[in-house]
Write a structure and sequence with these properties.
This protein is an alpha/beta fold and 173 residues long. 56% of the residues lie in helices and 18% in strands. Strand 1, helix 3 and strand 2 form a beta-alpha-beta unit. It is globular and about 55 Å long.
Length: 173
């Protein structure tokens, strides 16, 4: 990673999350438009974000698995469906992945339902690079928080199996 860290990476380091900044982010961008993707991939890569382009929901699923991606950025439409299809796939197959949506201002009426369905943030077109970078790092942090929360719950569950059994035995008496 370069010496000139983005403000998002620098703030992550300041919070004591050196692992977050050192490992970077694997982000899948689901879009059928490839006009800006090489530019975004190049510019975001300098800040520790690896951008992987998918043009179908199936490809996005594969890339999230293959890269252990933590963030899914969606266009409102793409080759084999819409953001609703992608969100359904994410909820079903990748429940800890955080989703962002890129929307045109004419899509404002649909965005309310997108946020109700679990979209973490909306990035309005035309996409501003710094806004995209900040949104991806914030979404990545949210995914890591979800993973940590889940790991803590699993640890609590596994460390106290006898307590749960004791409860049932006491309740049966």
């Amino acid at each position: 990673m370069e010496k000139h860290l983005s403000s998002a990476v620098a703030s992550c380091k300041g919070d004591g999350a050196d692992v977050l900044a050192s490992r970077g982010v694997d982000c899948v961008f689901l879009t059928c438009f490839d006009d800006n993707i090489p530019f975004f991939a190049s510019m975001l890569g300098r800040g520790g974000i690896r951008l992987h382009r998918a043009c179908t929901v199936e490809m996005a699923d594969f890339l999230l698995l293959a890269t252990r991606g933590t963030v899914l950025v969606l266009d409102t439409t793409f080759l084999d469906g819409s953001w609703q299809d992608a969100l359904a796939m994410t909820r079903r197959l990748h429940p800890l992945v955080t989703a962002l949506i890129c929307a045109d201002p004419v899509d404002r009426e649909f965005i309310v339902s997108a946020q109700e369905r679990g979209v973490f943030d909306v990035i309005w077109l035309p996409i501003e690079l710094e806004r995209l970078r900040w949104a991806i790092w914030t979404a990545h942090a949210a995914t890591l928080e979800r993973r940590l929360w889940l790991a803590e719950r699993e640890h609590e569950y596994r460390s106290k199996p006898h307590a749960a059994a004791g409860f049932y035995l006491d309740a049966a008496k």
